[in-house]
Amino acid sequence: MAINVIIIDDEKGARESLHKLIEKYCPQITVAAKATNIDEAYQLIKELSPQLIFLDIEMPNGSGFDLLKKFDHIHFDIIFTTAYDHYAIKAIKYSAIDYLLKPIDIDDLKNAIQRVLQKQKNKSIQNEQLLSLLNNIKPEQTDKKIALHEGDGLTFVRLKDIIRCESDGNYTTIILEGNRKIVTSKTLGEYEELFANENFFRIHRSHLIHLHHLKKYIRGEGGYVIMSDGSQVEVSRRKKQEFLDKLSFL
Description:
The protein is built from eight helices and 15 strands. By secondary structure, it is of the alpha/beta class. It folds into two domains: 3-136, 3-Layer(aba) Sandwich (Rossmann fold); 145-249, CATH 2.40.50.1020.
């Protein structure tokens, strides 16, 4: 069954090129409309109720994120299209939302469409996570939140409440203030990358700590730290000097 889409991009060439690729390589997709700016796109989405939109991030009169913030509830899937691979893309990468880098590769487009079709059953989870990401996308915000998969749903936690993350194979346990723990299906390496600009430091192959909750460092061969909840975490010898250098800038 075909799904209707809207292409949103301020560059005519980009709109037409994507339209042609979809017509040629993605028979499951029908382009219902094309928009050049967020105001036009907002009206078309309200009018046509597409199941999917291709959304440019950088546009002269407002970003793709500005468009999405106009909606109280997002009832469509999103594939971002952008020429810029920066902080926003890192956040998108770890959500259930997809993105394509320009110029768009045919195989990447096909794979993105297949992922959208496969994610239809989990639409409510995708949209809740996206709304959470939109609240976190600006680096200047101080009360950022992240959506963590827990059981059949999502738990939203503030980054400042995360004390540390502990690896358990392909899973990670998030230790929070108030003696709360959440086990997630992402690896510690994925969280290390996601939190790269958020005052976290990986002091051991099994531990990523939030420096905001660091209370004391005890010297030794590698030494260990004491966190705000009283937990003690070993510092690996390999990470010791890098960790001490990091502390000197706090």
